[in-house]
Amino acid sequence: DAKTTQPNSMESNEEEPVHLPCNHSTISGTDYIHWYRQLPSQGPEYVIHGLTSNVNNRMASLAIAEDRKSSTLILHRATLRDAAVYYCILRDVGGSQGNLIFGKGTKLSVKP
Amino acid sequence: GAGVSQTPSNKVTEKGKYVELRCDPISGHTALYWYRQSLGQGPEFLIYFQGTGAADDSGLPNDRFFAVRPEGSVSTLKIQRTERGDSAVYLCASSPEGTHGNTIYFGEGSWLTVV
Question: Checking CA distances to B112, which of A60, A68, B87, B102 falls within 20 to 30 Å?
Answer without folding.
Answer: B102
